[in-house]
Amino acid sequence: MTESSSAKRTRVQKGPQAPRFIVIEGPLRVGKTTLARILAERLHARRIYDCEDNPFLAEFYAEKAGAAFRAQMYFLMERQKRLREALAAEQPGPVISDFLMEKDRIFANLNLDDAELKLYERYYEALTEELPQPDLVIYLQAKPDVLRARIAKKKAAEESRIAPAYVEEVARAYEHFFFHYESADLLVVDTSEIDFVERSEDLQQLLKRLSEPVKGTQYYLPLGGSD
């Protein structure tokens, strides 16, 4: 794969030691926040939280003109700021992030028109050029129908406005991105048949796999539990 200039950002040096900068990523309601919290507690890691207070998100879900660009630029500014500040703090111990910076670009490509995307890309390149890549990315994936069911179960007011077709678009965009991802070691976890948020046995199996080393791109396809 030919890397873009942003993909050539400074990489964390690899070695036999455990990963120090870990990212949890995946589409909405796949379990990112829960897994990040649990791993941060177990590893005594500092955690970088994704932006959940975007003031333009409600307008975006309501499909108001220009709201997609405003929401995306807010995410871009806030996410790069959070990563930059957390990684610049030279504190001991691992760091776990709830998001991969490239996530921002995935959604920009889905939501912005050509003119907006062209302007967005200029800011993206400038703001993310010197951000380091993680040692390990854990990509949680699930089938669109599973994601839709989890969104419905959560019953969050803003998420109720998300169209089923958009959930499918997001899931496909994530799969395409990570199929080509080579910037860090990658563990792909299929969560379609498990629910580690609700079932302790599923969580314990996943944590056992995460205690093992990951090199290159590897896949974890759990058998799933029974209700």
Describe this structure in words.
- This protein has 227 residues and is an alpha/beta fold.
- It has a single domain (19-220), classed as 3-Layer(aba) Sandwich (Rossmann fold).
- The protein is 45% helix and 12% strand.
- The protein has a 6-stranded parallel β-sheet, with helices on both faces.
- Strand 5 (185-190), helix 8 (200-210) and strand 6 (217-220) form a beta-alpha-beta unit.
- Helix 4 (102-111) packs across helix 7 (164-179) and helix 6 crosses helix 7 (164-179).
- The longest helix has 22 residues, at 67-88.
- The protein starts with 20 loop residues before the first strand and ends in a 7-residue tail after the last strand.
- Mean pLDDT is 87; it is low at 1-15.
List the main descriptive attributes of the protein structure presented here.
6-stranded parallel β-sheet; 12% strand; Rossmann fold; globular; alpha/beta; 227 residues; disordered N terminus
> Helix amount, in percent?
40-55%
Separation of termini? 42 Å
| CATH fold description | Rossmann fold
Beta-strand residue percentage? 5-15%
Number of helices: 8
Strand order of the main beta sheet, please?
2-3-1-4-5-6
**Most strands sheet:** 6 strands, parallel
Short description, anyone?
With 227 residues, the chain is an alpha/beta fold. The chain contains eight helices and six strands; from the N terminus they run E-H-E-H-H-E-H-H-E-H-H-E-H-E.
Topology:
Elements: E1 21-25, H1 32-43, E2 46-48, H2 57-61, H3 67-88, E3 95-97, H4 102-111, H5 114-128, E4 136-141, H6 144-154, H7 164-179, E5 185-190, H8 200-210, E6 217-220
Parallel strand pairs: 1-3, 1-4, 2-3, 4-5, 5-6
